[in-house]
Design goal:
The protein is an alpha/beta fold. The protein is built from 10 helices and 8 strands. Helix 4 runs parallel beside helix 5.
């Protein structure tokens, strides 16, 4: 006989991995949202460690879980991502795009199979974004779960741009004012503060016309051209942006804001209705949908 489960204990727990399988059944009955942080192991210049992307994403998710455990379960992070263009910098680990999407989709399909009908993937690495979105889209098409995706900085973009940041557009790109501030708040001892210099948006200043066509900023948009080449061709340090503008207090402000906004998102997603799919063919198709699912 399966032992009895304390529903209140499950309601208070936000860590997916901390539950037993009978407790997972109870979490599904409670219609908790499954939250999956996704990051990368990637160089972040002279001053930040390799764990920036998965540490920031998972920290925001866990803080949200602590605030609202009754609404969510936070999974252990997917710590590796797509970083092929950064492989000139030692320490970076890259996963093939198709492998990465398949890994995420295997996780979300497993969750859907067990009964989690609302899933959120929180990305922490810019070059993962389109791949995470594709995995979320395929989850929605291949299962009866509903999966939404976003990067953690999208939770705070308006607040950060209007009330916190001091750098100009381009100052928040990679190992920048934004990421360095968050890391200073979460793990200040891990920041090599004597090396936070010389990481201005070199690709804008060194390439003629770059400030018009080819610039990027996590929260302020980007130039009209997407041209992703080897990072080493436009950054000597491996970072670009304005990390010298970073402070731990800025990091605290945006961390708290991000966690609060994620709670809001989880609660919205938890109660969001799922409109039915509708068939519009006058003549019903005579073969299965020819895309492998």
């Amino acid at each position: 006989m399966v032992p009895a489960v304390d529903p209140e204990a499950v309601r208070r727990e936000y860590r997916y991995e901390a539950l037993t399988w009978p407790e997972i059944n109870e979490a599904i009955r409670q219609q908790k949202v499954a939250v999956l942080p996704v990051g990368s192991v990637e160089q972040h210049g002279y001053h930040l460690p390799l764990d920036v992307d998965f540490r920031l994403a998972s920290s925001v998710c866990r803080a949200a879980g602590e605030r609202s455990p009754a609404n969510m379960l936070v999974l252990p992070p997917v710590s590796y991502g797509y970083c092929h263009h950064v492989m000139d910098f030692p320490g970076t680990i890259t996963i093939q795009p198709s492998t990465f999407i398949s890994l995420l989709l295997d996780i979300t399909r497993s969750l859907a199979y067990h009964g989690f009908k609302r899933i959120i993937m929180i990305n922490g690495h810019g070059s993962n974004a389109h791949l995470v979105e594709q995995a979320g889209r395929q989850t929605n098409l291949q299962t009866d779960a509903l999966c939404c995706t976003l990067s953690w900085w999208q939770l705070i973009a308006d607040y950060w741009n209007k009330e916190v940041r001091t750098s100009a557009p381009g100052g928040c790109a990679h190992a920048c004012e934004l990421e360095t501030s968050m890391y200073l708040h979460l793990n200040g001892d891990g920041v090599r503060t004597d090396r936070v210099h010389g990481a201005l948006p070199e690709f804008v200043t060194n390439i003629p016309g770059g400030d018009e066509w080819q610039w990027v900023d996590l929260t302020a948009g980007a130039g009209p051209v997407s041209l992703i080449e080897w990072t080493s061709t436009y950054s000597e340090t491996g970072s670009f942006g304005a990390p010298e503008e970073a402070t731990a207090e800025k990091g605290r402000l945006i961390f708290e804001h991000a966690a609060g906004r994620l709670v809001d998102l989880v609660r919205w997603h938890q109660g969001r209705p799922t409109p039915p799919r509708r068939e519009h063919h006058d003549v019903a198709p005579t073969i299965p949908l020819p895309f492998g699912f």
